[in-house]
Amino acid sequence: MGLRRSIALLLISAAIAFAQVSRSYAIASDYVRQNRLDIAIPMLEKILSDTPNDLMCRNLLGIALLNSGRKEEAVEQFRKALQADPDFRAALKNLAVAEMALGSRNDAKAHFERLLKLTPADPVAHLYMGEINFAENHPQQAIDHYNQSGDLHWKDPQVTIHFAKSALQLNQPKLAEDALEHLGLDVPNFRFEAGVMLAAAKRYSAAAMHFAAAQNGYPDPYEVGFNLTLMHVEAQNYPAAIFSGEKLAEKYRKAELYNLLSRAYEGGGTTQQAYDALRTATQIDPNDETNYLDLMSLCLAHENWDLSLEISDIALTHAPNSYRVHLERGAVLAMKGRTEDAEKEFVAATRLDPKTSLPLVALAIIQIELKKPEEAAVALRARRKQNPKDYLVDWFLAEALVQVGADPGTPNEKEAVAALEDAVSANSTAVSPRVLLGKLLAKRGNTARATAQFEAALKLDPGNVTAAYQLATLYRKAGNTRRATELMTLVGKATSASDASLSPRRELVRIVREGAK
């Protein structure tokens, strides 16, 4: 309403500037300014009955009618003024404004475009053309027009939001962030919308600022408080997240809130509080498997195997058909060395959700460790036919085939190379499939391609010992002793811990944890 009122005053001022001001007209215009339209309209109609060719009076009557909500009558007055003078700019502008109010966007667009030919710097015309281009999904044109509207686009929070959305469409999040700083403190709904927009653009700190501002007046205090805490967590501002989350928890006892608090506690280094928060979440909603899974994942991260198994026992009493619980339970059992029990859990997870590849891959990893690669290869080969773009399936099919036997030129070797090439294509950031592909290519004698895979693996993971060693061997054979020496120095600095991190069981835990997110 503030912007509309400001524009109305601009239009009135323009009308007065070009009018031969009579006393009655001046009085009527004052009434329009004061929004006393019930008095102004009859006065203006009286003037027009006496002087029907008074175009400024007719224009002012149109403004009064428009402001009183009589939009169709306003349009009629502006059109009559333009019939008498087609270049009457004030009436042309007001007609376009009235057409926008009526929802006649195409008519308004044509009239604003004509007005800008007559008056290229008109701020009102640029403001509305910005709105029209925003509605037509032309973000660059919208911003160009908004920027030529003076500061009118900052006076209406809805228009400010439209400017920011246009900037985000153009992948200019900083421009959107700066624009939204023009929002006032008394518009909590728009502040909340700004927070949502910036969160989607991953501008978490800026989003948190808007959610904090929205707390004063937003109709759902829990929703805005939860989003504020979430933004602090995403921005890794854990002290602020803990403060806002604990304050919200004083009034609301919700499982999702305590789950979020656990992330803040863990990020802030208070692991015991993270455990306690997740336990509280499971007590609030014992049938939601998510909280059990997150608690088990936390245990996996800290290698608290026994506690993780205890939690899985409780989880299965409430969610016996959760394939994810069986999946994580299997990973824990594998880390405890109970591979046969782990295999049973993965079989159960696969039966519960046969369409999901992760339990099948987990089972294959255990089968490979149990020296049953043929079984793993059969299952993974069948899944690969269903989904050749699943990099985990492709990768561990190749691992199984290599264990079965994949000498250069054999069908197993060709299948393994093809699977690994698909794995690298499906997930270019995965290191292990590149390393295995490099090994197979090196055995083929294709040193150029093997070198490229090892170099790419080292670029992704500079501390990868296997890639460094294999690459050093290739460079030494090629006569590049300097590079080979550099790589062997890296290998020599590697610790046994880094080697352990590449074990199948550790890989299994990593995959399961990532898949549970």
Q: Short summary of the structure?
A:
This protein is an all-alpha fold. The chain has a domain at 1-120: Tetratricopeptide repeat domain (Serine Threonine Protein Phosphatase 5, Tetratricopeptide repeat), CATH 1.25.40.10. The protein is built from 31 helices and no strands.
| Mean of pLDDT | 90
Indicate the CATH topology of the domain at 1-120.
Answer: Serine Threonine Protein Phosphatase 5, Tetratricopeptide repeat
Task: Report the sheet-strand fraction.
Answer: under 5%
Distance between the termini: 45 Å
Number of helices: 31
Shape: elongated
CATH architecture group name of the domain at 1-120: Alpha Horseshoe
Structural class: mainly alpha
Give structural notes.
The structure is a single chain. The chain has a domain at 1-120: Serine Threonine Protein Phosphatase 5, Tetratricopeptide repeat (Alpha Horseshoe), CATH 1.25.40. 77% of the residues lie in helices and 0% in strands. The protein has helices spanning 2-18, 23-33, 37-50, 55-67, 71-84, 89-102, 105-118, 123-135, 139-146, 157-169, 173-180, 188-200, 204-214, 221-234, 238-249, 255-267, 271-284, 289-301, 305-318, 323-335, 339-352, 357-369, 373-386, 391-404, 411-426, 431-444, 447-460, 465-477, 481-493, 496-500, 504-516. Helix 10 packs antiparallel against helix 11 (173-180) and helix 18 runs parallel beside helix 20. It starts with a helix and ends with a helix.
Keywords for this entry:
single chain, 517 residues, mainly alpha, Serine Threonine Protein Phosphatase 5, Tetratricopeptide repeat, 0% strand
